[in-house]
Automatic annotation (TrEMBL):
Keyword Plastid attributed: no
Keyword field contains Membrane: no
Domain HTH luxR-type residues, every copy: 152-217
Keyword terms, alphabetized: DNA-binding, Phosphoprotein, Transcription, Transcription regulation
Name used for this protein in its record: DNA-binding NarL/FixJ family response regulator
Domain Response regulatory positions: 6-124
Alphabetized GO MF terms: DNA binding
InterPro entries to which the protein is assigned, alphabetical: CheY-like_superfamily (IPR011006), NreC/VraR/RcsB-like_REC (IPR058245), Sig_transdc_resp-reg_C-effctor (IPR016032), Sig_transdc_resp-reg_receiver (IPR001789), Tscrpt_reg_LuxR_C (IPR000792), WalR-like (IPR039420)
Species in which this protein is naturally found: Amycolatopsis roodepoortensis
Family matches, as Pfam families: GerE, Response_reg
Modified residues (4-aspartylphosphate): 57
Length: 220
C-alpha cells in the first residue's frame, strides 16, 4: 500500500485550523503530520516532521506565512518543501509575494473541501496549483506595479509562438485539459509544451510561469 501523504497545517485561527485538520484527517490517503499557529513553529515542525505538504496561512504571529514559505521553499533552500497557501481574497498582494517566495500554489479559504483536498494531492504530486477563478485578479492586479519596465519582454524571449501561447493561457489560469481544448491539441502535447517552456525559461513550475508572464508583460 502507498503511504499516506503527510500534511502539516499552519493557521493561527484555531477554528480554521481545526476544520482543516478534520477535513484532511478524514481522508484515507492523507495524514495530518502536525499543526501549529505561527510561521516559526511551522518551519521548526517541517524540519523535524518532514511533511509532504505544508498548508500555510499568510498572516500569522511571530513569523508570517510568506517568510515561513521562503525558509521552507525559497531560492537557496537545499531541499525545498511543498507549500500550499490558503488565504482570503483580500490578501491577494500577500499571495503574490508568497508565490514568489516558493509556494507551490494557493487556494482561497472559502474553497470547497473537495477542491482543498485536490489541491493538497496536486501539490504533493509535484504539480503547481493556481486557483483559476482568481489567478488573474491575484497576480494581475499587482503585476504592473511590481514589474520593472526593463524586464518586460513582449516577444517571449526564447519561446516559440506555440510555447508563448501556452504560457499566456497558463497565466489565464487554464489547466492542461482546458489548454488542450482551447488549442485543439492533446493533453500530452500540452505537457510537452509546458515542460519545454519551463526548461527554456529556467522556471520550476506553473506558479513561476504565471509570475514570469506578468512580470514580462506577456499577460494582462
Amino acid at each position: 500500500m502507498t503511504a499516506p501523504t503527510r500534511v502539516l497545517v499552519c493557521d493561527d485561527q484555531m477554528l480554521v485550523r481545526t476544520g482543516l485538520v478534520t477535513i484532511i484527517g478524514a481522508q484515507p490517503d492523507l495524514e495530518v503530520a502536525g499543526e501549529c499557529g505561527d510561521g516559526r513553529t511551522a518551519v521548526d515542525l517541517a524540519a523535524r516532521l518532514r511533511p509532504d505538504v505544508v498548508v500555510m496561512d499568510v498572516r500569522m504571529p511571530v513569523l508570517d506565512g510568506i517568510e515561513a514559505t521562503r525558509l521552507l521553499a525559497g531560492a537557496g533552500v537545499a531541499e525545498p518543501g511543498k507549500v500550499l497557501v490558503v488565504t482570503t481574497f483580500n490578501l491577494d498582494e500577500y499571495v503574490y509575494r508568497a508565490l514568489r517566495a516558493g509556494a507551490s500554489g494557493f487556494l482561497l479559504k472559502d474553497t470547497p473541501p473537495d477542491r482543498l483536498l485536490h489541491g493538497i494531492r496536486t501539490v504533493a504530486d509535484g504539480a503547481a496549483l493556481l486557483d483559476p477563478e482568481v489567478t488573474r485578479q491575484l497576480v494581475g492586479r499587482y503585476a504592473a506595479r511590481i514589474r520593472p519596465p526593463e524586464e518586460q519582454d513582449p516577444d517571449g524571449g526564447p519561446l516559440t509562438p506555440r510555447e508563448l501561447e501556452v504560457l499566456r493561457l497558463i497565466a489565464d489560469g487554464l489547466s492542461n485539459s482546458e489548454i488542450a481544448a482551447t488549442l485543439m491539441i492533446s493533453q500530452e502535447t500540452v505537457k510537452t509544451f509546458v515542460s519545454r517552456m519551463l526548461a527554456k525559461l529556467g522556471l520550476r513550475d506553473r506558479v513561476q510561469a504565471v509570475i514570469y508572464a506578468f512580470r514580462h508583460g506577456l499577460a494582462t
